[in-house]
Here is the input.
Amino acid sequence: MFEKVQNFIVMGKSGSGKQPRVDVLIRRFGLKQLSTGDIFRHYLGLFNVLNVEGELSVFFDPTKDDFIADAEIKDRLNITAHENAEAIVLGLKAKYYVNQGRFVPDRITNALFESAFQALEFKGAVLDGFPRTVEQAQFLVDLANRKGVKLDAIVLVENEDELIIGRTLGRRICKSCGELYHMEFRPPPNPGECVSPNPVCDVVQRSDDNIESLKKRLEEFRTKTRPAIEYLKQAGIPFYSVPGNLPDYSPARVEASVCEILGLASTSPSV
Ligand code: ADP
Ligand code: ZN
Here is the structure.
């Protein structure tokens, strides 16, 4: 089983411990990570450079339940002539949702996902954080069918909300290279400093890693992602649940736990 793997789907609550499991699959099967969260953070970064102060809700028109026109946003941001104007507007829109812990609307997410998946010719990916809603799941299954590629398995990383809350608030990330840290379990070597010697590296807290935003993300998971998992199971994709919390954490133990559940021989020495 798991011969000629094309694509894995890794799902789980925000902060459940997806990344180390994704790493195991990448190493094991030579796959590439495709993370919608990373894609959104890329666009957020383009917008953040402008240092816009104040609430982003001023760009939102509640009567239309949509943003004000793109041309108007560009005008207010003074970027009409900027070569990255479209991407910056996308960054503003993504940030509006991400910082509140809300899912970015399916229309935006599906389009960005498809172009990133297309860049990989629709195979060889660990899909991380996509799909998260029933509509995204339908979109993915249809896309895979149309392109004639397999979705080999769903790996759901399970974890309790209480544990996640403690872990997420201690989470830190390198703005430049994406290396993950935790103030308790894996502090940066010196405050704000990354293990990479790259001078532009800077370890910070994600702007959406606060308690309100996290609680909203956990609610989004319950109400929108659980049904998406059911949809994917119904579509016949093999399903595996792996623990997101190990009593005695080490990379070798994570590898062993994933391998055991997927029925793969573990390459780690005894753990
Ligand atoms: P986490 O590390 O908390 O699991 P991610 O880095 O995957 O979160 O995503 C960060 C944020 O980006 C999410 O809280 C959400 O706002 C947005 N996002 C990521 N993937 C999706 C998606 N598939 N659909 C909608 N929003 C998404
Ligand atoms: Zn770094």
Q: What stands out?
A: The domain at 7-159+213-262 is CATH 3.40.50.300 (Rossmann fold).
